[in-house]
From TrEMBL, chains A, B, C:
This is Ammonium transporter Rh type C. Keywords: Ammonia transport, Cell membrane, Glycoprotein, Membrane, Transmembrane, Transmembrane helix, Transport. Pfam families: Ammonium_transp. Ammonium transporter involved in the maintenance of acid-base homeostasis. Transports ammonium and its related derivative methylammonium across the plasma membrane of epithelial cells likely contributing to renal transepithelial ammonia transport and ammonia metabolism. Postulated to primarily mediate an electroneutral bidirectional transport of NH3 ammonia species according to a mechanism that implies interaction of an NH4(+) ion with acidic residues of the pore entry followed by dissociation of NH4(+) into NH3 and H(+). InterPro entries: Ammonium/urea_transptr, NH4_transpt_AmtB-like_dom, RhesusRHD. Homotrimer. It is found in: Apical cell membrane.
Length: 460, 460, 460
């Protein structure tokens, strides 16, 4: 198929239209919340807080910045492993995330921060907007290299909307706890992306096979993404937890789970290679599965050894997925999953949901203290209608709701993206920056001689 | 012209002399401020603060670290886009910033933290020193590739001095608000750098034309710089704002402006290419203009939609500047602006100054509250001499003062740097690391065979 | 010697065994400390603290994340300078650190956080575990390229154990202050690593000489490591200091020392090259020596000028070490120090210990205040048995204890690592990722033509 990939008017118009709409909607709806508003002394007295330090900003801002790095550098560079798709990986991720966070501020705002006709935003909204976009970055991994930037903007528009609805159902209707987003971000994002790539199946993708592999330095760029995701994941899972012990505990649990995950991912990577060699794909991805899988339970009393066990299992499952499941999905189910998000976000996301449900179901006042239990699960202390087993059931229901939303939404959005109007690349031009980017000509490589600063071209 | 580029004695002597002078001046002048001094209990009681948490450190340190990353990794890597100038971009930026922050601690200290014969430093001084050096990094962008490290040290010495004088005039005499430095950092830095490069005009620069373009991986290195600047800019604009709501608001406004800026920069980049392709130069630079342009107003009640509008405009203006204005400046005005700082810092800096003046002129007690207004603009609450329109006028005056300081200072410093004694490169050797660095010989590239770990050289 | 480098069963079994043991030990011993435990209201009342903000988390978490980045990105990328060892540098560092932090939580926990049969962990334990692993990363630098990942895991197991014993002797028995670890981390880590590489001496290492040099882009990757270490070092040295002024002061001192160190490292690098050119090795390493050398004294009243002097000296000494000492150690003492850790961590670590001893010996109540002195050095205020000269002597003793532990421990661990069972590479295969990693074939480099997105292979 010879689609027209010249985006000259379509991409600018899409961007400008979206941005104008955002400006108008922000003008109508978005204001600062009291912690960010200048009515400082008066409001402070109302809120009965004595110090500037009680401003939510100081509880959450460092975590926000870490999450911000994960979305833009973490996801962006993680996907630069392809030899000739680095501009697009980093650049399109940048574009879709910049659009997505604005749209998410509105969508999540209407559901969670709407008051007297206004969305009142503060640092927690910024974190949640980044989280929401994180699920789009996950889905991007499945379709990486096979879509145009317009398709990505369209997908972001719909996915952020669906994310917000799903999140509202889980957090507000089912009253599920999911601070690190195993269900809302990873399970939803992964199965949404897999469904979209299934709809967009390209039977002749082998035509761009030679560009689907990395080169040496592109793998090192990808490790920048991996490491910033890995290092800052404790901030991700603790960023919107309750102040104090919950944030503290979420960081510890995530740290433990991720550490264990590295060892089992390395073990499996070596064990599954005929000469025992390690595979960069596993190191770049499977080492992160432990962070995904404690997303729900990290703030609960999972215990450090519980976190280690979760990480242990996920390193193994995720690496096995890369070796056996991804090829199977592609050849049998026609699901072309460029980055293997099923192994990094899909299965670990579901595991995370289950771990969260089990941990919640086991919560008791012996472990949490009487007040601690009410505080941790957000119910009135003497509410006799709350029980941990009920919480566990609702948590489990959250997994299924997320999966259903992802599948239905993914089918609809996939069909929209299949329309031949978005400037998508032909099969033989996939995974190539040169379709959408000015790329430098690199025929002539100039070589410096230490003794002679004048350069002469080497033979091409 | 055949200058002598052997720096063997000149560079070491310059570095050692400057550093010895700094040691002596620090010995005479610099001490810890009370929050960093060990006289802890006694002073704490004097200061009447009950908790260690009230230490300024906890309000500012996370922002400081983000700013620090912007100066060293952000600016350093942003300039690695040139194919053979990565060592110098990162390395010289490292050198000038390491010198500049020490000299800035002194210069800014004398103006703002001088007490009883001593400069009392704390974390806010560290941030301000980084800010000051930020303006030097901006100016470096204009002359990148065409100067020696000695010239950079000399320029830093003078520019930090002028920066501090200009900052004193604006902040202390005109009582202007400029927390994110649209005027003091960006406008001043950009027009200073442009004036210097105008004085240093090289008519035969085309002789090193082939090295003025990027290679594939150098563009990815540059994206590391772009993204760390983009992500941490909310910290930059909020780092020295008042505690509480002002810091909080500055971060939100900057986040919004930057997000909008990405979409319009992408739109224009595509619209201005004959096949609609994106240009890495715009993605690396124009996406940041929104951060520059809310530098003054971010801590004010600019409102989220106001921030979006500022970002919207700057993404467009900055990209247009790269496409039309930079070539014009070079061919008609003989201003060779290597990184296009006029589009990233110059125009957006002036826009930022104007936005700040207008926002200040519109400040009212309805929006800020009575006490909030006095707090936000630092005047006694019942001072009837203060009016928002007056504040707006002084803000506007700050732009012109900064421009005048930049132009006059830039001419003087440019003339000094033109002296043929600093080891500057000849026109045909510009943009080449090999002049000032040991660079690895890369004739023989060793290629690994997955099946055979023994290496054999490929043909050169 | 033709060792078997196929790790297929050995590496997986090692990883899985270690991780299972860690899970069991965590299950038996590790629990949350009160600040991270959900028994929130009850415990909060016991602790008599009124606000969530008093949670240790908010004092230490931002510093923890900075330290975390230093260990994984800082050390990992610093070692990517070799042309064909980037996967191993980043990947093996990732593996050993992920194992090491878990084992360190246990070892350090038994010594310092053991209570009623449990190790109670919180954010400070996470920082200390990262610190402990930092010393392993240091030692890794000496043997980089010459060992298998199994050897690294074995070394980590022993080194973390010895580190914890040494740290216990210094901090708990000698009551030494060493917040930034000049002695416990750098001196111990460096001389341990140097002893191990001395035992593992490879007389025929010249056979892989061609891979011991960098290529252009590998040096830029290494600068990512350098800069993140440099920028976050103020957090490293202040992360576990006392709340308030001590943390604040440690950050300021480290900032100053590092800045001065850059200028003198550059000066010496240029002065020692026959044409005055800079050497990337010095910029990547010697610029960091100032951070190492204020590790002990940064939290003391070293004064900003004192910090500058320390940085000044270390930039010189470290660069001289790279030029003269490293070749001497290799040719005369048969110590093959791949990254030159002796110059970055060894000598500066000892200097740091001495500076700390002298600064402590000079501590007086005039400078610290009466209560400040007791607080800074952790003794009862009216304890007449404490004197600053005694503190200084104990500090000095700490250097010798660390050296002795490093040498004895290094010999034992070196002998263990010399056993021919760990899959170490042959001399001609050192510094080559292809032994332990799947590496992409790079015979055919595809070149994009801006005008023609279809790719054609260039000649190999």
């Amino acid at each position: 198929m010879a689609w027209n990939t010249d985006l000259r008017w379509r991409l600018p118009l899409t961007c400008l239209l979206l941005q104008v709409a955002l400006v108008v909607l922000f003008g109508v709806f978005v204001r600062y919340n009291p912690d960010a508003d200048a009515h400082w002394v008066e409001d402070k007295q109302h809120a009965n807080s004595s110090s500037d330090l009680d401003n939510e900003f100081y509880y959450r801002y460092p975590s926000f910045q870490d999450v911000h790095v994960m979305i833009f550098v973490g996801f962006g560079f993680l996907m630069t492993f392809l030899q000739r798709y680095g501009y697009s990986s980093v650049g399109f991720n940048f574009l879709l995330a910049a659009f997505g966070i604005q749209w998410a501020l509105l969508m999540q705002g209407w559901f969670h921060s709407y008051q007297d006709g206004y969305i009142l935003v503060g640092v927690e909204n910024l974190i949640n907007a980044d989280f929401c976009v994180g699920s789009v970055c996950v889905a991007f991994g499945a379709i990486l290299g096979k879509v145009s930037p317009i398709q990505l903007l369209v997908m972001t528009l719909f996915q952020v909307t669906l994310f917000s609805v799903n999140e509202f159902i889980l957090l507000s209707l089912l009253e599920v706890k999911d601070a690190g987003g195993s269900m809302t971000i990873h399970t939803f994002g992964a199965y949404f992306g897999l469904t979209v790539t299934w709809i967009l199946y390209r039977p002749n993708l082998y035509q761009s096979k030679e560009r689907q592999s990395p080169v040496y330095h592109s793998d090192l760029f990808a490790m920048i993404g991996t490491l910033f995701l890995w290092m800052y994941w404790p901030s991700f899972n603790s960023a919107v937890s309750n102040h104090g012990d919950a944030q503290h505990r979420a960081a510890i649990n995530t740290y433990c789970s991720l550490a264990a995950c590295v060892l089992t991912a390395v073990a499996l990577s070596s064990a599954l290679h005929k000469k025992g060699k390690l595979d960069m794909v596993h190191i770049q991805n499977a080492t992160l599965a432990g962070g995904v899988a404690v997303g729900t339970a990290a703030e609960m009393m999972l215990m450090p050894y519980g976190s280690l066990i979760v990480g242990f299992i996920c390193g193994i499952v995720s690496t096995l997925g890369f070796v056996y499941l991804t090829p199977f999905l592609e050849s049998k189910l026609r699901i072309q999953d460029t980055c293997g998000i099923h192994n990094l976000h899909g299965i670990p996301g579901i595991i995370g949901g289950i771990v969260g449900a089990v941990t919640a179901a086991c919560a008791s006042s012996e472990v949490y203290g009487q007040q601690g239990l009410a505080h941790a699960f957000d119910f009135e202390q003497h509410n006799i209608n709350w029980s941990s087993s009920m919480q566990g059931s609702f948590q489990a229901a959250g997994i299924f709701v997320s999966l259903a939303m992802a599948l239905v939404g993914g089918i609809i959005v996939g069909i929209i993206l299949k329309l031949p109007i978005w400037g998508q690349p032909a099969d033989e031009n996939c995974f190539d920056d040169a379709i959408y980017w000015e790329v430098p000509e690199e025929h002539t490589i100039y070589v410096s001689h230490p003794e002679d600063p004048n350069l002469k071209p080497s033979e091409p």
